[in-house]
Specification:
Cytochrome p450, 11 strands, about 50% helix
């Protein structure tokens, strides 16, 4: 059943907008604009062929939903009974014993363990780690005069920084990253889910036997007394919220700085890399559509009836650009305003946003200092975006710069 005006609930539902094809990936903002004109703040979409959902593209409607866990819980267990394990988007949406997919006392328990383990990270040490990783990555390609900033810079930084924080050896981390990439892209996702599950279980077992000063060890020692299964799924969440979105945040911000002349000039005039990050978190957040909830009964939002047990997906990208939010602001008026929803809000707000900011900001500052004359190696319109309903991710980001001698 589609998301339709309550007074017309008996009428034929409108056609659904596919979020999984290359056409949507190429220009999602044009798709959001068409949805807004046709459906208003709540649009009927497909996340995968045959998987229906409601996409929230109104900022204020999203705030109400994200702050109403009783009517919009995050537990998908009833929904997933009707979804085969082979469904490409199921691994990103299915129930796991973690904070992201739980409510009530269990959510509080899981979130407390995660927050305590993350908050114990030394920010100064983290910055130093990222600086070392960034320097090493740049050293590997600066004499060539060209690079793919995703494969050779953004991804290695996200991968190595997160693996260091979690106390994860490279071989296990590589398998985790492979599994997470398949899940995010909704390609071979069932196999990706298996790879991911096996790898995080191995990491938890390793740190159980050999404790260290890392997030995994702190989770194991937390008074929440997480079971082996719960531990594995906390690590799935941390990696899922880490490697792919952080890679895309760094690369999407690189793209904006390189291609937006006004913004590039602003950086030279005193704007900060943090401003660039926030501009991207508004316009092209790395996790564009997510924060999924599953109302247990039909819920009326501004005259639109949201069906029971059907996914309600928040489009952070569309909500941030809702005309109702920006009406009356001067051009560029969002600069420096961090009211965007890229980190979500309410009980499921990202607990690691300060760490993500620090990693991305350090990586970008290091890159711009080392390679101030960087430019795209191809016209911007030739860049390709990876299809998938959830992320905003480039296939590659080829650049050129004066080669070091």
């Amino acid at each position: 059943m589609a998301a339709i005006p309550a007074e017309e609930s008996e009428s034929i539902p409108p056609s659904r907008v596919p979020l999984y094809d290359e056409l949507f990936a190429a220009d999602p903002h044009a798709a959001y604009e068409r949805m807004r004109r046709t459906y208003g703040a709540l649009a009927p979409v497909e996340l995968s062929p045959g998987v229906s959902a409601t996409l929230v593209i109104g900022y204020f409607q999203a705030l109400r939903i994200l702050n109403d866990p009783l009517r919009f819980p995050a537990d998908p267990r009833f929904w997933q009974q009707q979804i085969p394990a082979s469904c490409p988007v199921r691994p990103m949406m299915e129930w796991r014993p973690n904070a992201l997919r739980s409510g009530g006392a269990e959510h509080i328990r899981y979130r407390a363990a995660n927050a305590a383990s993350i908050d114990a990270v030394d920010q100064h040490e983290l910055r130093a780690i990222v600086e070392v990783i960034s320097s090493g990555a740049i050293a590997d390609f600066r004499t060539a005069g060209h690079a793919d900033l995703i494969r050779q810079y953004a991804w290695p930084i996200a991968f190595r920084a997160l693996s260091t924080l979690l106390g994860c050896p490279d071989d296990i981390g590589a398998r985790i990253a492979t599994g997470m990439g398949k899940i995010m892209e909704a390609s071979d996702a069932d196999n990706g889910n298996r790879i991911l599950g096996e790898a995080v279980a191995e990491l938890a077992a390793l740190r159980q036997q050999h404790p260290a000063d890392d997030i995994t060890t702190r989770l194991l020692a937390h008074p929440a007394h997480l079971t082996d299964e719960e531990m594995a799924h906390q690590l799935v969440t941390l990696y899922g919220a880490g490697i792919e979105p952080l890679t895309n945040l760094i690369s999407n911000t690189c793209l904006k700085i390189i291609t937006d002349q006004d913004f590039s000039a602003g950086l030279h005039a005193g704007w900060s890399v943090r401003d660039a990050l926030d501009a991207v978190l508004y316009t092209d957040p790395p996790l564009a559509n997510y924060c999924i909830t599953y109302p247990p009964y039909p819920v009326d939002i501004d005259g639109t009836l949201l069906p029971a047990h059907q996914p309600v997906v928040i489009s952070m990208a569309a909500c941030n650009n809702d005309p109702a939010l920006t009406e009356g602001l001067p051009a560029g008026g969002i600069l420096g305003n961090r009211a965007h929803l890229a980190w979500s809000t309410g009980p499921h707000t990202c607990p690691a946003r300060s760490h993500a900011y620090l990693i991305a900001e350090t990586a970008l500052n290091h890159l711009l200092d080392a390679l101030p004359e960087i430019d795209l190696a191809v016209p911007a319109h030739e860049l390709q975006w990876r299809p998938g309903p959830f992320h905003r991710a480039l296939h590659s980001l080829p650049v050129v710069f004066p080669a070091a001698t």
